[in-house]
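Hey, can you fold this?
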Amino acid sequence: MQKPVFISHKKVTPTAMTLAEYNAIQGWKLPKDQNGAIEGYLIEYLDGGEPNHKDYAGYISWSPKEQFDNGYTEFIETSEPVVGSTVNGCHPHPADIKTNIMNAFTHASQSLDIDKMTAVYDWIQGSNTPTAK
């Protein structure tokens, strides 16, 4: 049985730290088979979840740097509505928009019409307005 695939849309704040530093904050002993020097982030969820540490208002967890950097896009808070924003009052850095679109197509490629995907990909790469065959 194939597991379902999900794309995250959580609002989080990262704090850079190693796995050993995160375990120390949690009061946990690092297992012997774990590398405590792995770089990553303490992730605090801002949009749900009961706090699980006395020093944080939101739920916290830890993510390796590579997985976090490849899975999250920084958002800019603004008081003005943003046309096309998917999160009220936030919009992604312009440089990340094409990357986000391509990531979405990569994850959804099995269910999309290949001609439409190709047309949009060509448009993203700088061609004219997309036109599906």
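Oh, and this one too while you're at it.
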Amino acid sequence: MADINSVSVTGRLTHPPEARQAGESQVVNFSIASNDWRGKRGEVANFFRCEAWGAQGQVIHDYCDKGSRVGISGKLQYDKWEKDGETKTSIIIRVDNVALLDTKGSNQQETAASSQPQEATDPF
């Protein structure tokens, strides 16, 4: 039986996504912060480095910016390399799917709108 390597996270981009060419493909690197509730400690942010290839990367590059809220799913990828005689390691999320929960420019509008009192509506 094959092992399972699957992760899903929602959060906000910590900086604008960075695109680069890797051969004939485009890869987009970005990081997201995802808040977690830890009892008495309160809300704690977790930070995840992410990498998206091809169409998924293009969507993130074109429609997301620092502060954009996204939902991603993919696989954890472990990398190990040598630099200046020192062994370096990194774990990233290799993104397979992305859901845009808001887009470029909507963060400021969302913040302004959320400060205004709004009537609760039942989506069902």
